[in-house]
Amino acid sequence: MKAEIIVSWFAQKYGKTIFRKGVVDNKYKVWIDKKGNQCVCFYDTMRDRYTTAINPQIKHMELIQ
User: Fold this and answer.
1) Cα angle 16-21-26, degrees, rounded to a multiple of 5
2) Which tens digit of pLDDT belongs to each residue from 28-62?
């Protein structure tokens, strides 16, 4: 199963909120890091690579047939 998502998170590295379109696939992963932050690894279709977001908000999810 795959799903399209829109993810946003505050990137401390850049000092701003990032918005990305992505795909949930078999490599999608959610975990809590040592500092207690929720982390999500997803395929970023805008950058054509996997991206990890820290404390993200997932705005939209739609299944892909």
Assistant:
1) 120
2) 999 999 999 999 999 999 999 999 999 999 987 77
